[in-house]
Specification:
With 316 residues, the chain is of the alpha/beta class. 23% of the residues lie in helices and 16% in strands. The relative contact order is 0.18.
Length: 316
């Protein structure tokens, strides 16, 4: 999320490199000069090596990706047409964001929908310090699921909408947190919605040869559940930084192959992860949309495999 209420606790991050170990062996070929053009006409198409332009590892025409934004504080009605020129979908809080006592997104669904936005529906998750025991974790998971479903209903989100639980802690989660999360997912499903998780895809080093991401940890602890993943990883690379490409990066290259959404830029930028793409951010460290000439709405940037990642545009 943006700077309001960021509580992420991450240690070190790993980096991934992509190699193409292709070797070519040269051979001498003796040809009759007159036959050379004919031979080349047959051989060149078969031997041609495809050219991948910069960013080809990102979204492609056959597998499109879509650009969206999120921020904790609603940017205001006048900002919406401007942001729509760049973004296809928007984050949408069902609860007060971390660190806030009120939710400024309430009541804005129809306006956003009328402007053509898709949705990333989000509900604040608990901090692990609140989950003192398994019993408490189950109780709070049930309460929060009911709160998410009630708010989604009142905002006009129909059955089947994916609600992402905001998990701000990185690395391996405590056992009670997994109890809380499983309870939340089950109860949200009973209420007619589908559960998702917003969580880290940044590897955290636990031992000399052991790393873990929160996505991996949650997947291992929810084996029989259909969980939608919205991962965050602002490490450059794989993140392009504060960028708004027409061909957005696919979520799967952000460190979680199963992710439907990837948050690849945050405001303000985290210097320890973004030194290699710092030039893409504004000098104040925030990320702003191209149309925001006044730099009024710092935001986080996402790519998704759908223009409506939460399936939230459907009328109730």
């Amino acid at each position: 999320m943006d700077s309001f209420g960021r509580f992420r606790r991450l240690s070190r991050t790993g980096r991934h490199s992509f190699f193409l170990p292709i070797r070519f062996r040269r051979r001498r070929i003796s040809l009759v000069p007159a036959a050379l053009p004919i031979l080349l006409a047959f051989l060149l198409p078969a031997l041609a090596i495809p050219h991948f332009p910069p960013g080809a590892i990102q979204g492609s025409q056959s597998v499109p990706a879509y650009l969206g934004f999120d921020r904790n504080i609603y940017p205001g009605d006048t900002a919406i047409p401007i942001l729509r020129k760049t973004f296809v979908f928007t984050g949408y809080w069902l609860s007060p964001p971390p660190g806030e006592k009120s939710n400024t997104w309430s009541g804005k669904r129809e306006l956003l929908r009328s402007q053509g936005f898709g949705f990333l529906v989000l509900y604040r998750g608990r901090d692990s310090s609140e989950l003192k025991s398994e019993a408490v974790a189950k109780r709070l998971g049930t309460e929060d699921a009911a709160g998410a479903a009630t708010s989604a209903k009142s905002e006009g989100f129909s059955d089947g909408t994916i609600i992402f639980l905001d998990v701000e802690e990185g690395g391996r989660l405590p056992a009670n947190y997994h109890t809380y999360l499983r309870t939340w997912l089950d109860e949200v499903l009973k209420a007619g919605y589908r559960g998702g998780v917003y969580c880290s895809a940044i590897p955290v080093k636990e031992e000399a040869n052991v790393t873990i991401t929160t996505v991996e940890d949650i997947r291992a602890n929810t084996p029989s559940r259909d969980v939608a993943y919205w991962s965050y990883n602002d490490v450059c690379p794989p993140s392009p930084g504060c960028a708004f490409p027409k061909n957005p990066p696919l979520p799967s290259i952000g460190g979680a192959s199963e992710a439907a959404v990837w948050q690849f830029a945050q405001s303000p930028r985290r210097k320890e992860y973004t030194s290699r793409c710092r030039a893409t951010y504004h000098r104040d460290g925030n990320c702003y949309a191209p149309g925001d000439s006044a730099h009024a709405w710092f935001l986080d940037v996402n790519s998704a495999t759908s223009p409506d990642p939460s399936n939230g545009r459907k009328p109730e």
